[in-house]
Amino acid sequence: MLARSQYPRFVSWILELLHRRTRQTRVITMDGLHIQICPQVFNPVMGRTTHFFIQHMQLRSESRILDLGTGSGAIAAAAAQICQSVTATDISPYAVKCAKATFRLNGVADHVRVLQGDLFAPVEGEAFDIILFNPPYLPGDATSWMAKAWSAGSKFELLSRFLEDARQVLAKDGQIQVLLSSTTSMTQIISCMKQNGYRIRILGKGRILGPLEQIFLFQLF
Question: Are 55 and 45 in contact (CB under 8 A)?
Fold first, then answer.
């Protein structure tokens, strides 16, 4: 039986193996969305967290939305069906191209802006009412563009940097909705949330692969 301590490395290996088989672009349907699947971009069906995020996120139609690390664009496309002002960013040029195709497929390209860059660099000086982030949360350093989709750093540096910098682009009375997993050092990350002055609410929780992984959608405000 797989030990809990071995689970993150096992999942990283499985994801890498499955994504290597994605050699051609294609379109899938999930949560009523048409999603472009591309080589070098995380397939949201494989991770299951994207579906969970879409099912549990809470949006207001008038809100200015930032979807950070958009990947294939699924979460941003779902948000754009509710909100008229959506910005989607990703560090990967492959993801930016893929997300644009997803937005065209769903008829929302006219009100989704897509930018390339690391975390908040592409939107410096702007303000958003809701920041959505389905982040890499497995421990370890990325060795490829693909692995950036699930590798949060050996000490979860990416998540810490996100929490420290988010207020720079968060509007007054704004909020963050971020997904985390029990494979993350939850004590460390929740401590970082509190150190940066966030109040915490759980919008949803569920499980992946039975007892081995629990996921949470947190609301920070």
Answer: no
List domains and CATH numbers for the chain.
4-220 (3.40.50.150)
pLDDT for res 133: 98
Q: What is the pLDDT of residue 13?
A: 58
CA distance 41 to 96: 9
**Residue owning tokens 């929302």:** 108
Task: Please say whether the beta carbons of 159 and 205 come within 8 A.
Answer: no
Cβ proximity of 43 and 74 under 8 Å: no
CB atoms within 10 A of CB 188: 13
Report pLDDT digits (tens) over 155-212. Answer: 889 899 999 999 999 999 999 999 998 888 889 999 999 999 999 999 999 998 667 7
pTM here is: 0.90
